[in-house]
Amino acid sequence: MTLLVILLAVLGLVVLINWGKVNAFLAFLLVTLPVGFALGLPPDRLLAAVYQGLGDTLGSVVVIIVLGAMLGKLVADSGAAQQITAVMIRAFGTNNIQWTLMAAGFVIGIPLFYNVGFLLMVPLIFSVVYKYKLPAVYVGLPMLASLSVMHGFLPPHPAPTVLVAQFHANMGLTFIYGLLVAVPAIILAGPLYARTLKGIVSRPLAGFVAEDLPESALPGRVNSFVSSLLPVLLLLGAAGLRLALPAGSAWGPALAFISEPTIILLLSVVVATYTLGLARGKTMGNIMDAYGSAVKDIAMILLIIGGAGALKQVLVASGASTEIAAGLQGTGLPPLLLGWLIAAVIRVSLGSATIAGLTAAGMMLPTMAQSHADPNLMVLAIGAGSLLLSHFNDGGFWLFKEYFNLSVKDTLRSWTAMETIVSVVGLAGVLLLNWALPLVAPGLAHH
């Protein structure tokens, strides 16, 4: 019954958004309320779940998205993105721009949450697209594949980090194994798969792409790179200092505060306001107008993400995720495959990779106690499952669709297919490692 309700909810979203041309935020509300009643939630709990889903989802991302949009707008308007693009193209050539952006996403994706990395790099992707007349999805998908894999597979991102602790895995080994699994997944889902998507017509939001400026009007190369990538530099610096400090240091809480993505982006916006704005002759009024324009461009995106959060919370409040996972536990599948499958089903049902990973971990803990599965590989198997088949109930789906200005069909063909490739290749990599580790490194197996 639960699976049927969820299937009908997804079908309802497809009908309303794709065929009925209903605004996605309204479609989420129109689908969420009947789903809640169908799953047995009384009216008061249903509305409470809707409000909680909206509040929790937006509360965790709204400041990051707004600040990221402001920084991205200034990076684009000031010419910094144009300068960075020119340097990268001269260094690697237009023929290798996919691989260049993929590598950048890989590095940036280690310390940055997906939403932060997405918003930081969108102006750079769009500048390449407009200046060199390249297909937007073809250029952008490899970088986003990198960011997504880093978020789903590897610590220090939220779900993998919690999973490492719950399964008593080794953080270092999980990270090393994760890199071995992540690289082929990113290459297959990014540059190689994106070659089949050159025909997708995409007109990215022009508000995040400034007109080409003459080279003499561009900010300097160092200023452009440092101001644009300051969030990454600050995060890496703070993380390095925290590692260097002895346990229990009085500086620990301060560094933890500074390392928060919201604080990092706020500091970055303040610095860029001066280095890319005031110091280059812009008035504060002009800069604030640009920031206001950036927020207007993302207002509907925020509402859509909130709508997806409302549907997710109704499914959680009704016990749907627990019921689905419990039903899968009786299948007798190998533990690593079972962990991937539970995370995958919850991901498809709820949309949230983090929720899917954490819920699957709770379901797999009793199984882990009775099996000899490698805990490091279980973290990766669940991480891979949590990325499968991103669709209408995932905020990342709507970020990609709205920023790249795609149809639902083309978003499914590009974004959803990319996430699915990453998930399946990730599972294959985990199973291959599980087979190979006892042969090539018996001392590390099940460490």
UniProtKB/TrEMBL annotation:
The chain crosses the membrane at residues 48-67, 99-129, 136-154, 174-194, 225-245, 251-277, 298-317, 337-365, 377-400, 420-441. Keywords: Cell membrane, Membrane, Transmembrane, Transmembrane helix, Transport. Its main location: membrane. It holds the Pfam family GntP_permease. It is a multi-pass membrane protein. Belongs to the GntP permease family. This is Gluconate transporter. It comes from Hymenobacter nivis.
